[in-house]
Design goal:
Elements (H helix, E strand, L loop, with lengths): L1 H10 L6 H14 L7 H12 L2 H5 L8 E5 L5 H13 L3 E2 L8 H8 L11 H19 L4 E6 L2 E3 L3 H15 L16 E5 L13 E4 L14 H7 L4 E6 L8 E5 H11 L7 H10 L5 E5 L3 E5 L9 H5 L17 E2 L6 H7 L5
Helix pairs in contact: 5-13, 6-7, 7-10
This protein binds 2-acetamido-2-deoxy-beta-D-glucopyranose (3 copies).
One 2-acetamido-2-deoxy-beta-D-glucopyranose binds next to loops.
């Protein structure tokens, strides 16, 4: 046997054996059940080159390292959020929110008093909560995170929408093919959930792309509908630099930008967190990209049933009723065609 092999070797051209030998060794390496060929190793070997950025964007955390919900306590908000997340294959982290003493919030409220606009009490509480969540992102050492408010809603087709956002953010910011990340790194805020964004002439032009899941303009309920009428064809969305965007329903941040936002917005002295964020975006102190129209909007229980938002009640604009009064009756999500919450909770749309 040994001799035969030797003879074989001697008589054959040794070069011809290198390739088959390498192939056999490789197969042995990947197929044998030894610790060096576990699924994880195989995944590392192949995944790096095969996962497209747009596919990564459509994972359970929308291509961010974490999806994080800002939430003060379990309620109809978090129950609906989790139901919608389950339906659409998303995975949210809901960190416990620190309770700040009222004196702290009041002190924050009064920064800049008499010199500039200051937030009312409910808006200041919500603002400080966003700052606390940004601190959580920083302290957790996350590379990227997407932050939502816990009453947020989205379309059941969000995974299709986010793939297009990945394609177009990458295109818009000239992300090289060699960079496998879903959105590149040339932004501080990726503002995907809001209640209106201006498309202004003086700003750099955006990139327009087809997305047939978009709400028709005449059904779009926002202060910014006029911009869609003038600047955006039906069935299309736009990625553009944010000049004026309102409502912080959902926004992406990076390790570096979370600190930048905290530094700028931790100084208070504006009407609310979202308004201050919008101002810093407009001043170009933050590089903010917005998708227009938004892919996330908040769900609102029926106001007829006595629902009052915590910000409004904190601002002194009404007392909320018990959530049992409205939780099981369908509310509304403006601007989202096929609401994930309403599909999950009521098997219906929320329009
Ligand atoms: C989704 O993709 C991002 C970016 O590649 C990654 O950081 C994150 O861990 C992924 N999420 C899941 C749940 O695999
Ligand atoms: C990138 O955007 C431009 C318009 O700004 C468009 O012409 C081009 O087709 C886009 N490329 C990709 C790969 O989407
Ligand atoms: C949801 O509604 C559709 C029609 O609108 C119906 O066909 C389907 O059976 C319903 N699903 C459940 C689980 O009730």
């Amino acid at each position: 046997m040994f001799r035969q092999l030797c003879t074989f070797r001697v008589h054959a051209n040794p070069r011809l054996h290198i390739l088959p030998a390498v192939v056999v060794l490789f197969l042995v390496f990947i197929l044998l059940p030894n610790p060096y060929s576990s699924d994880v190793q195989l995944g590392r070997l192949f995944a790096v080159s095969t996962v497209q950025p747009r596919q990564a964007a459509a994972n359970a955390t929308l291509g961010f390292q974490r999806l994080i919900a800002l939430s003060s306590k379990p309620s109809w908000r978090t129950r609906g959020l989790q139901a919608a997340a389950k339906l659409t294959g998303l995975d949210f982290t809901i960190p416990p929110q620190p309770h700040n003493p009222v004196e702290f919030v009041v002190a924050f409220e009064d920064i800049g008093l008499g010199q500039t606009t200051t937030p009312k009490h409910g808006s200041a509480s919500a603002w400080v909560a966003h700052l606390d969540l940004l601190k959580f992102v920083i302290a957790s050492g996350l590379e990227t995170a997407f932050i939502v408010e816990d009453d947020v809603d989205w379309d059941v087709r969000i995974k299709d929408q986010i793939k297009l956002i990945s394609d177009n953010v990458r295109n818009y910011t000239f992300v090289p093919k060699s960079d496998p990340t879903p959105y590149g790194a040339d932004w501080d805020v990726l503002w995907l959930g809001h209640c209106g964004g201006a498309i202004e002439d003086w700003a750099p032009p955006g990139v327009i792309y087809a997305d047939d899941t978009r709400i028709p303009t005449d059904s779009y309920a926002s202060w910014s509908t006029g911009y869609l009428q003038q600047r955006l064809p039906e069935g299309h969305r736009m990625i553009h630099v944010s000049t004026t965007t309102v409502c912080s329903f959902g926004y992406g941040v990076t390790r570096a930008s979370a600190q930048k936002i905290l530094t700028l917005l931790g100084r208070g002295a504006d009407e609310a967190f979202d308004v201050a964020l919008s101002h810093h975006c407009r001043e170009r102190e933050l590089r903010c990209l917005v998708v227009n129209p938004q892919i996330m909007h908040h769900y609102e229980p029926s106001k007829d049933l006595g629902y009052v938002s915590p910000v409004d009640s904190g601002d002194g604009e009404g007392e909320p009723v018990d959530e049992a009064e409205f939780e099981f009756i369908k509310g509304k999500t403006f601007n989202i065609v096929e609401s994930a919450r309403c599909r999950a909770l009521f098997n219906d749309t929320c329009a």
